[in-house]
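Query protein
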Amino acid sequence: MSAVHTARARVAGLSRHRGPDSPDTLQARRDLRAVRLEEYISRTLATAPPLTDEQRERLASLFTPATSGGAAA
């Protein structure tokens, strides 16, 4: 079973037994989104040409929260 299927099954089970707004269900939904994003990024990088160091740094910066007021650039 893939990680997405496992995460989706966890969301379904928690939703059914603890409710859609339970903290555990909400965390499971976040986990599912993260797993889907990870798989998407992996598929995209597998078909893309190699990234330069600058491109890699720019993409990595998207995962770093802003340290001062305002949105990350």
Q: What stands out?
A: The two ends are 38 Å apart (CA to CA). Residues 3-49 form one domain. The longest helix spans residues 23-47. Residues 1 and 50 are 30 Å apart (CA to CA).
